[in-house]
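Quick question, first post here. What does this chain look like in 3D?
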Amino acid sequence: MPEKTVSRLRTKDLTLVALFTALMAVCAWISIPVPPPFVQFTMQTFAIFAALLALGGKRGTYAVTAYLLLGAVGAPVFSNFRGGLGVLLGTTGGYILGFWVQALLYWLMTAKLGETLRVKIAASVLGQVLCFAFGTVWYLALYAQAGNPVGVMAALSYCVFPFIIPDIIKLALAVLVSRRIEKYVQ
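> Answer (accepted):
Ran it through. Tokens below.
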């Protein structure tokens, strides 16, 4: 009878997932406030990129999942020290939930195409595009539901266009950091 192979997280894996989950919370608190309907600038996306690049798809996705679950139960891990389902179900909640979609895409791409730097960067960029798309659709739907419909171009100008250059910089920084620490997290 063949033996089953069981994939288990070791103590080191759990510790790294917890550390990167904490990094996501701390980076969410680093923000530049802007008036509504604009979305705040935070370092949260840097932490998402860093977790995925440094930990890999599986552990990185676990870190993003833990972060979202902490926020969902009310821990103040989102921007402005907020937490709870109200934040996730609010107008910008789609971008936060989009991090999970981004992480799943990253995990899938790196599992299928390999862990080369080129694949990791492509997975990060495509994941961020998917996160933007998910969040923007969510944003449009909630504003329309509230009786204040917003056009697609307006939503993109509030929630996506101002973030493209900063997110490219955050991705580059995350690549540098992850390459420096990769020997410690493998």
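The helical segments are 11-29, 44-72, 85-88, 93-113, 117-145, 152-159, 164-185.
The longest strand covers residues 31-32.
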